Amino acid sequence: MWTDRHRTRHEARLKDMLMPAGLDEVARFLARADPPGRANAQPARWVLAAVAWHLRVGGAWRALPAGLPPWRTVCGWFRRWIDKGLFARLMRALARRQRRRCGRRSAPGDHRHAKRQVHRRARPARR
User: Fold this and answer.
1) Which contiguous run of DSSP H or E holds residue 76?
2) Residues whose CB falls within 8 Å of the CB of residue 52, separated by 6 or more in sequence, listed in order
3) How does DSSP assign 21-45, residue by residue?
4) Which of 83, 90, 76 is CA-nearest to residue 23?
5) Is 31 exposed, middle or buried (0-12, 13-18, 19+ CB in 10 A)?
């Protein structure tokens, strides 16, 4: 059965976001947001390439090709990034950048209330 957590891991936007052209930029973002704790850790770019392969092909983590990092490493980092909300944060940052690129404000505002003043009647004091 598909749960919300399972859908998040296999969301189509993640597949589009991890296209080869953007892997370097996404890897830099992830490395800055969640740096590895050890000096000899797998590079984020290499782990992200394995995640992109998994999202593109599907199947079990154990089915990763031999040229990629170990499946436990890749699966662990991916779950850690999902749990920390880094992909959601990345999507918001990309949306802000795209809005600025199109000449709009970086965040949408609620303009319905900005022009209209809300007047409240003073309530009489309770006796």
Assistant:
1) helix 71-83
2) 18, 19, 20, 23
3) GGHHHHHHHHHHHS--SSTTPPPHH
4) 90
5) middle
pTM: 0.61
Residue 59 — left, alpha, or beta (φ > 0 → left; ψ -120 to 50 → alpha)? left
Query: What is each CA distance from 26 to 11, 38, 80, 105, 116, in whole angstroms?
Result: 16, 20, 15, 23, 41
Query: What tokens does 15 get?
Result: 């597949």
pLDDT tens, residue order, the chain (127 aa):
667 776 666 666 665 655 655 777 888 888 888 887 777 778 888 888 898 888 888 888 999 988 899 999 999 999 999 999 988 888 888 888 878 887 877 676 655 555 555 556 666 667 6
Report residue 10 as tokens.
């296999």
Half-sphere exposure of 48 (CA within 13 A, CB side): 23
The residue whose two tokens read 């770019």 is: 45
- The residue among 56, 85, 84 whose CA lies nearest residue 68 is 56
